[in-house]
């Protein structure tokens, strides 16, 4: 028997401003499920919701009931974060903002990198962090030092880059940008548990990516420059459960595109 995660359906306070509701949509790519974040200033009724999740009526209704929702923010386009956008808008009437115009609702506008959003007694700063997807952004809750990273940094394991529009060069730049924000930022990821220090995990992510990139370079030297994605995965990820190779293929495909790009 598979036991349900104890956090499903629960509102869990993480800081005086930030709470999370874990959606019951576990999987290889979503870990325990998608984290829907609720930001509420002390003493205020209105809140900001980050990533309402996918088309799960129970989850969407539960989050909407935590309102009134003043604004909905989207970290990136993947369905497990955005599939419920339209229904959530119907439930709350709250404007929706994102990078991708597909998800804008209620007069919400596309993000501008570095802008600050002042609503519901909170100030949230937008940080463009493309790489996992082209439209990925992170959000800093000013005055608290909390950062919501979407899938750019996860609470467990490492991020798979989407080979349809992800870009390793962008991702490395995004990790360096997050690293440069300095110590003291608590990390609220799109999946997995929160982490205490952005600088530490960003450094770990950068080290991991550089290590994997070196392994892919070495594989190409041994297998030949025209080696296929699967051949490289079998060579580099030989110690990983083959069930995880399809996810690894996405990241390797992005790494090969990075290595094979003209200077």
Automatic annotation (TrEMBL):
Organism whose genome encodes this protein: Rhodococcus tibetensis
InterPro entries, per the entry: LACTB2_WH, Metallo-B-lactamas, RibonucZ/Hydroxyglut_hydro, Sec-metab_biosynth-thioest, WH-like_DNA-bd_sf
Pfam families: Lactamase_B (PF00753), WHD_BLACT (PF17778)
Protein name: MBL fold metallo-hydrolase
Ranges where the Metallo-beta-lactamase domain occurs: 33-191
Family matches, as SMART domains: Lactamase_B
